[in-house]
Amino acid sequence: MLLLTQATVSFISSCLKALRATKNLIVSNQYQVMLVEDHRNISCGGDPFNYLKSALKGIYFQLDPGQDAQILLLKEKFPYDEEIFEGLARTSKLKLVNVDEKDGEVSVIVRRINQQS
Predict the structure, then answer these.
(1) Distance between CA atoms of 23 and 66, rounded to whole angstroms?
(2) 7 within a domain of the structure (yes/no)
(3) 90 pairs with which residues across the strands?
(4) Contact by Cβ (8 Å): 72, 106
């Protein structure tokens, strides 16, 4: 029987989180992603469109102009095409940089654009 201390369990847990984050960043290694938001396992009983709209507005405030963010989604929960993602990004004063779908997962890269006065 293997006994693990709380510190060991905590260390292993943080290592697994770091590995997951690294895996997510590898998907977008051609972009300088400053922020990765994983919305694949959300349990939202409301409208997914408005949920995503709200999430993008929150991302806008977390980024400085020129910075990128990656949003990870499940196609099943967010069955939108690139035009919808582009419109949502534009509404939140973000630029859609890339949408990539693979194995039922969607990776959306957005960039906060420089605001003209």
Answers:
(1) 23
(2) no
(3) none
(4) yes
Global pTM value: 0.70
CA contacts within 13 A on the Cβ side of 87: 7
Q: How many CB atoms within 10 Å of residue 9?
A: 10
36-64: average pLDDT: 89
Q: What is the CATH number of the domain that holds 69?
A: 3.40.50.150
Residue 48 located in a structural domain = yes
- Give the Cα separation of 32 and 29 in Å (integer): 7
Full residue range of the structural domain in which residue 100 is found = 31-112
The DSSP result for 17-33, as a single string, is HHHHHHHHHHHTTTS-E
